[in-house]
């Protein structure tokens, strides 16, 4: 998959939300986002994770944080609708060896590394969709 670098920037609002909610550094949240987006249904996974962050903030009664998270979710959805696409053969050949474009990279990631953020149950969100955030 080609992943738009603006979707995985550590200062992107949606990456900051993931970092804050899962108590991880923005660099780690950025890496998780990048690896997740490179997978099939990655956009939906990140969207669902951000939605859970919104629901968690609402459940904790933090309306200001929930509003901030909703804004980040809308921004992610807007960017993602244009920023992730399967590479064509021509794009793959064109990008091979071109690490200076700054716009997109082709990722080949071992699926075993795709555990994702962990909820309070100790399971990853992928393993336990009902896991509560900490």
Which structural traits does this protein have?
134 residues, 3 strands, 6% strand
Overall pLDDT level: 74
Number of helices: 5
| Oligomer classification | single chain
Number of domains: 1
Strand order of the largest sheet: 2-1-3
Helix content: 40-55%
CA-CA gap between termini: 31 Å
Structural class: mainly alpha
Order of helices and strands: EHHHHEHE
List the uncertain runs.
85-115
Radius of gyration: 15 Å
What does this protein structure show overall?
The chain is mainly alpha-helical and 134 residues long. The chain has one domain (2-113). 50% of the residues lie in helices and 6% in strands. The protein has 5 helices and 3 strands. A 3-stranded antiparallel beta sheet has the order 2-1-3. It is globular and about 35 Å long. The model is unreliable at 85-115 (pLDDT under 50).
Q: What would you say about this model in short?
A:
The chain is mostly helical. It contains five helices and three strands, in the order βααααβαβ.
Topology, element by element:
Elements: E1 2-4, H1 13-21, H2 26-37, H3 42-59, H4 63-83, E2 84-85, H5 89-95, E3 104-106
Antiparallel strand pairs: 1-2, 1-3
Helix pairs in contact: 1-2, 2-3, 3-4
